[in-house]
Specification:
CATH topology of chain A: Porin
Distance between the termini of chain B: 84 Å
CATH architecture of chain A: Beta Barrel
Largest sheet of chain B: 7 strands, parallel
Helix content of chain A: 10-25%
Shape of chain A: elongated
Strand content of chain B: 15-25%
Structural class of chain B: alpha/beta
Oligomer: heterodimer
Mean pLDDT of chain B: 87
Largest sheet of chain A: 8 strands, antiparallel, barrel
Low-confidence stretches of chain B: 1-31, 53-64
Low-confidence stretches of chain A: 4-20
Number of strands of chain B: 24
CATH class of chain A: Mainly Beta
Helix content of chain B: 25-40%
Structural class of chain A: mainly beta
Number of strands of chain A: 8
Shape of chain B: elongated
Strand order of the largest sheet of chain B: 13-14-8-15-17-21-22
Distance between the termini of chain A: 35 Å
Number of helices of chain B: 17
Radius of gyration of chain B: 28 Å
Strand order of the largest sheet of chain A: 1-2-3-4-5-6-7-8
Chain lengths: ~210, ~550
């Protein structure tokens, strides 16, 4: 345990020679593409016949001393499916169109490990606020959903420098957001209450 | 003198017995009916007669595509109501010039184009970029002093109310199930589904029947023999009226083992079939639940006239005919089977199925039918106030109890117009769900379930409470009107009709249909399942609309 801590501290404090040229403060906008696998697998499978979805978004990072990073990002996805029933281990789709939009906005802070000149492993954590709307045909006023709830998020990945001003990163993201699913609909039927999930995210970053 | 009377009575009884025996002997296959396939059409009265005659106990793809296209232009408003993107409705004060109106619209939205007062309107329609928030644009316009109102073009949907003239007057039962809004969801109302009605038969053909009507005694009144009679028989116009004869599928009479067509000589089966799928929105009579279903009449019950005509040994039915009827229906494509029938028996057939009074033959047939993909609906029983000499008061309805143990079969209790359990509706752990069965207490005519069937003043001529014995004549089965009846027999076909619509909507597994009906029912009585209402009152709209992710 002690050895692990020493190793982590060593990694954190290590500074390759090239890094000495990095600016103290860097503000870097980015765009991102996300492939998310939702934790509420049965719920999404019932309505959309899949539980993965791509989201697109962007944000801005602030990097201090090439090590500390704060990030604000937002993304959005719209999914079309059908209202359905889950019974036993079967899903029955009822031909009534349903559209759901998910708009996560997240604020995270993390640390970049300056191990190599052109690659930075990093970890970050923070809060995420999920905006969620659900509309379907023949809905009464109270039967559509428009809500926003918060949860937490963890990220870990690598940033690669493609050019002096262009970087790219690939990261794994884990989020958990409760309070939207689980109180009604199929999610309640199958006992799923988390709108978060695991995602692979790819960012194109502009800035040093 | 006394001895003479006794001898005379004996002679009469012997003569009667001899007649019955000879009638049975001369009718192998139980039939003494002579049926000719010609007959005049029915006489339709469109009256409303109620009486407490409780009986024994890929079109879809196109629809989806159209709706998906429509959904693309829908946006969710702040109040939760959807609106059509790209459109704002605005009413300026009188006298505001067109140029000023256009300028005002442009101020609220740079993309605004004005449709000045479309036909039949006193308002303008502002066309905006569909990506703009129409509610925000409307809000900006409302703040102008020259604007009376401005609003997004909120979405509306059809609310289908049948135009059958006596629907609103007589049929409290269909709105009680939220059916009008279910019909909005599925205007085809079960058109691809076949519902088998295991009952007293159905009036589905125009015929002429020649029978020999013997003497009989009923309610202590002796009725004379009428001899050979030619009896008119007609199809119920509201089941198989003009152009709808093809909705009758594979009819079969279990009582005569197929020798005779499954003709209804009682009215019960025709009434039940009417609740399942009486023709609707045709400007006539009353409505049915799944009014486009195909109907499979399977006769398993005999009526008074069946017995007298020699087409049955006794009134009612027996387990073998019912079990055979179930298997026949399943084998011939019925996806829903309605059984508005029942029988009292021991309460513990689940644990002691070979006990006297249990019905293992019916249970096996029900499991067979469900295994073939048929969903079964069973009347819960009308015996709450009855006292059975063997099984006591509120005896268990054996077939309903079997249904409660099979995923894919459901037992149905009856409620009155106020959603209270009908006084007769049996209670017990086997009751699974509720539907309108009506009541003869407290609501007058408004408590009955009305459908078109025989006008029993022309059929029940054997009943002294209907026709004075002095006016006894042969019955005729070609006069139809709206008859009010009550019972769990009437409750069950409501559920059968909704199940047919549910199957058409996409829930194709019998167990899943049961699951959906229970989970979407409106809870009545004690919270959760209870012995009076089961899981509650069926909600047709909720069942057909299904669930979203979060709501």
């Amino acid at each position: 345990m002690k050895a692990t801590l020493i190793l982590l501290c060593g990694l954190a404090l290590a500074s390759p020679a090239a890094a000495q040229d990095e600016p103290k403060l860097s503000i870097r906008p980015f765009v991102m593409g996300i492939a998310q696998s939702f934790t509420a697998k049965e719920t999404f499978d019932a309505v959309f016949e899949k539980h993965t979805q791509s989201l697109f978004g962007g944000g801005v990072q602030v990097v201090l001393w090439d090590r500390f990073v704060a990030e604000v990002g937002a993304s959005r996805a719209e999914m079309s499916g059908e209202r359905a029933f889950h019974s036993g281990d079967q899903n029955f789709r009822l031909g009534i169109p349903l559209t759901a939009t998910i708009t996560p906005v997240e604020v995270t802070g993390g640390y970049r490990f300056p191990l190599w000149e052109h690659a930075r492993p990093y970890v970050s954590a923070g809060v995420v606020s999920y905006g969620y709307t659900e509309t379907s045909d023949f809905a009464d006023a109270g039967e559509n959903v428009d809500t926003r709830k918060s949860g937490f998020v963890f990220n870990g990945g690598f940033e690669f420098r493609l050019h002096r001003w262009i970087g790219a990163s690939a990261e794994v993201n884990f989020s958990q957001v409760k309070g939207i699913l689980g109180t009604g609909g199929i999610s309640q039927q199958v006992g799923e209450d988390d709108l978060g999930g695991v995602a692979a995210r790819f960012k194109l970053i502009v800035g040093r | 003198m006394g001895s003479l009377r006794a001898r005379s009575l004996c002679a009469t009884l012997l003569a009667a017995a001899a007649f019955v025996l000879s009638a049975g002997a001369q009718s192998p296959g139980r039939s003494s009916l002579q049926i000719e396939n010609v007959g005049l059409p029915a006489i339709e009265e469109n009256l409303a007669i109620s009486g407490d005659r409780r009986g024994p106990g890929s079109e879809q793809v196109l629809r989806r595509a159209a709706r998906a296209a429509s959904e693309k232009t829908a946006r969710l408003g702040g109040g939760g109501r959807s609106y059509t993107a790209g459109r704002v409705i605005i009413r300026f004060n009188d006298g505001v010039a067109a140029a000023d109106r256009r300028a005002a619209a442009r101020l609220a939205s740079p993309s605004a184009e004005l449709d000045l007062q479309p036909s039949y309107s006193d308002f303008d329609v502002v066309r905006i970029d569909p990506s703009e928030d129409a509610e925000l644009v409307a809000e900006a316009l409302r703040e102008r002093p020259d604007v009376q109102y401005a609003q997004a073009a909120y979405r509306v949907h059809p609310t289908f109310v049948p135009n059958d003239p006596q629907y609103k007057e007589l049929q409290w039962n269909l709105p009680l199930l939220n059916l009008e809004r279910a019909w909005d969801l599925q205007p085809a109302a079960g058109s691809t589904t076949t519902v088998a009605v295991l009952d007293t038969g159905v009036a589905y053909r125009d015929l002429t029947i020649t029978v020999n009507i013997p003497a009989f005694t009923n309610d202590g009144v002796r009725y004379p023999p009428l001899g050979r009679q030619v009896i008119p028989y007609a199809a119920a116009p509201q089941l198989v009226g003009a152009g709808h004869a093809d909705r009758i599928v594979a009819p079969f009479d279990m009582v005569s083992n197929g020798l005779n067509p499954p003709l209804d000589f009682d009215g019960h089966g025709t009434h039940v079939s009417g609740t399942v799928g009486q023709l609707t929105n045709d400007g006539q009579s009353v409505a049915g639940v799944a009014f486009n279903v195909k109907l499979m009449p399977v006769k398993v019950l005999s009526s008074f006239w069946d017995v007298l005509f020699g087409n049955g040994d006794f009134e009612g039915g027996s387990d073998d005919d019912v079990a055979r009827g179930l298997r026949y229906a399943a084998d011939n494509g019925a996806k829903i089977i309605n059984m508005s029938l029942g029988s009292s028996g021991p309460p513990d057939c689940a644990t002691a199925p070979s006990k006297s009074g249990c019905a293992p033959a019916i249970e096996a047939a029900m499991r067979y039918a469900v295994g073939k993909g048929s969903f079964i609906v069973v009347a819960g029983g009308n015996e709450f106030e009855d006292r059975d000499p063997q099984f006591g008061t509120n005896p268990t309805s054996v077939i309903a109890e079997i249904a409660s143990r099979i995923d894919g079969a459901i037992s149905v209790a009856a409620v009155d117009p106020t959603k209270k359990r009908a006084f007769y509706s049996s209670t017990g752990s086997y009751i699974e769900i509720s539907a309108p069965g009506g009541t003869s207490r407290g609501f007058g005519r408004g408590g009955f379930v009305f459908q078109q069937t025989f006008d029993f003043r022309f059929t029940d001529t054997f009943d002294p409470s209907v026709v004075p014995p002095s006016q006894y004549t042969a019955p005729r089965f070609d006069v139809f009107t709206n008859i009010g009846i009550t019972g769990t027999s009437m409750a069950a076909p409501h559920v059968a009709g909704i199940a047919a619509m549910l199957m058409q909507q996409g829930v194709t597994a019998p167990a899943a249909i049961e699951d959906v009906l229970k989970k979407t029912a409106v809870d009545l009585g004690d919270p959760g399942r209870d012995n009076e209402y089961g899981f509650g009152l069926v909600d047709a709209r909720a069942a057909l609309r299904g669930l979203g992710l979060a709501k």
